[in-house]
Amino acid sequence: MSDPTSPAQTSSATSPEPLIRNVSDTARWVAVYRARETERPDAHFRDPFARRLAGERGEQIAKSMPLGRDNDWSMITRTYLGDQFINEQVQQGVDMVINLAAGLDARPYRMQLPPSLNWVEVDLPEILSYKEEILRDEKPVCSLERIRLDLSNVPARRDLFAELGRRSKKALIITEGLLIYLNAEDVAGLAKDLAARPSFQSWILDIASPGLLRLLVKRIAKQLTAAAPFKFAPPEGPNFFVPYGWKPVDVQSFLKNAARLKRLSLLFRLFALLPETEKSRRDRPWSGMCLLKKQ
C-alpha cells in the first residue's frame, strides 16, 4: 500500500507542481461533485460543506479531467448509495461507524444520525488537519473522533482495529474511494484484518470491473495516473472478499441507479438499459456500491 503523504514534487521553472500531488488530493476532486449535486434544485443529497472542502484546488482538478462533467453521475450515485446503506445499517443497530481513508467526507455533519452513534474517521494527518481547519466552527451531529494513521502500517492498523473492536458491539466499516488505489494483496490483507474483529459486522465499499479499469487508464488524466494510479478491479467482482470472511449481501450498480436518479446523459441512459450479469460486470465497464456482511 503506497503512502499518499509522500512529498509532492517541488515546482520549478520547467516542472510546475502537479494539481494532483497524491491520493489525498483526489478527496478535493470528489468534493466538487458533492457540491455540484448540492446546488441542484432536485438534489438527492445536500452537503453544504463540500464547496469549502473542495477549495480552489478541487475545482482546478475537476476542470482538468478529460471526462469533465460526464463523470458527475458516478460520484453522485456513489455518495447517494453510501448514504442509503449507512442509514439502513444505523437503523439495524450499528453503534460505531469506522470510515477508513475518510478524506473530506462530511457525513457526520450533514446526515441525520443518532447523537449516540460513534463515528471514527481514520486517515493521514495532512488531510484530517485540513478538514478540521475548514470545519472548525461546525458541530457534528454525533460523536466524532479522528485518528491520524497511515493504513499501510499493518501493525499499527491491527492495533487500532483491536481497540475499536473492543469499544464497539456492532461496527460498520466504510472504505469509499479507497480500494481502487490498492493492489489485490493489500486489499486481501485489509479484508482479513477487518474480519478478525468480531464486532466488525458490516462493510460498505465501492468496486470497479477490469473493463472499467482499462477504460479509466486510457481516458483519465495523466496527472492522476502518475500520482494516484488505479489498481484494484478484481475479475471476481464483489465475490473477491468471500475467502477473507465477507459475503456480499447487496450490490448496487452505479449506472442503473444513476438512471433511476435521472443523472445520466442520453448515451449513458441507453447503456443503462442493457441487462447486467456476472459476466458483463467483469467484461464491460462497470462499478457499484456493495454491502458486505461478516460470514
Please provide a written account of the structure.
The chain is of the alpha/beta class. The chain has one domain (73-294): Rossmann fold. Helices cover 43% and strands 16% of the residues. It is built from twelve helices and seven strands. The protein has helices at residues 23-38, 50-64, 72-91, 107-110, 125-134, 154-167, 184-195, 210-219, 222-227, 254-260, 266-272, 278-283, and strands spanning 96-100, 118-123, 143-148, 171-175, 200-208, 246-253, 287-294. A seven-stranded mixed β-sheet has the order 3-2-1-4-5-7-6. Helix 1 (23-38) packs across helix 3. The longest helix is centred in the N-terminal third of the chain and has 20 residues, at 72-91. The protein is globular, with a radius of gyration of 18 Å.
